Amino acid sequence: MSAEPSPSRSPLTYAHEAPLDQPAIEALLDRAFGPGRFVKSSERVREVAEFAPELSFCAWADGELLGVVRMWRARVGATPVVFLGPLAVDAGRRSAGVGGALVDRACEAARQAGETAVLLVGDEPYFARFGFAAAPASAVRLPGPVDQRRVLVHAFADLGEGLAGRIEGR
């Protein structure tokens, strides 16, 4: 665990997700995304991918869950990848760097674990600062409809022309 001070608030503690965190995580995801989160294409990926708790992180302050990032092992064609999402931060901590710190930790954990790349669906202007880009993911196919411009990848290894194929479980 590591702590990060905040000038006017309790310091945040970041820790890997644990099974006991599940109720707090589900409550945060419900507040952040509502019931519509279950119909997204990303949810279809999570149905076939393998959850990776050792790459997933929670941000805590005073025993309250303030943010979460979850990671899932999958593959695109023959290339193993990690799918990032959901990423959620409590409304009171948005724009305070919590989401960025969670993405940084998750991507670094994936890199250290020897993963090839992290894939997600999100806004390139936000995620580009973490090394994500749309171009290398332009031939990735997710189950269900998705705006292809929002499919982003952060590669830790040479992907040649980029990833190509349908995302599936490993």
Summarize the structure in words.
- The structure is a single chain.
- The chain is α+β, with helices and mostly antiparallel strands.
- The chain has helices spanning 22-33, 41-48, 98-112, 124-127; strands at 2-6, 9-16, 50-51, 57-61, 64-76, 79-89, 117-121, 139-141, 151-155, 164-169.
- Strands 1, 2, 3, 4, 5, 6, 7, 8, 9 and 10 form a ten-stranded mixed sheet that branches.
- Helix 3 links the parallel strand 6 and strand 7.
Provide the descriptors you would attach to this structure in a database record.
170 residues, alpha+beta, Aminopeptidase, ten-stranded mixed β-sheet, 4 helices, 10 strands, globular
Give the beta-strand count: 10
Sequence stretches where pLDDT stays below 50 over 5 or more residues: none
Helix content: 10-25%
CATH superfamily: Gcn5-related N-acetyltransferase (GNAT)
Instruction: Supply the helix-strand structural class.
Output: alpha+beta
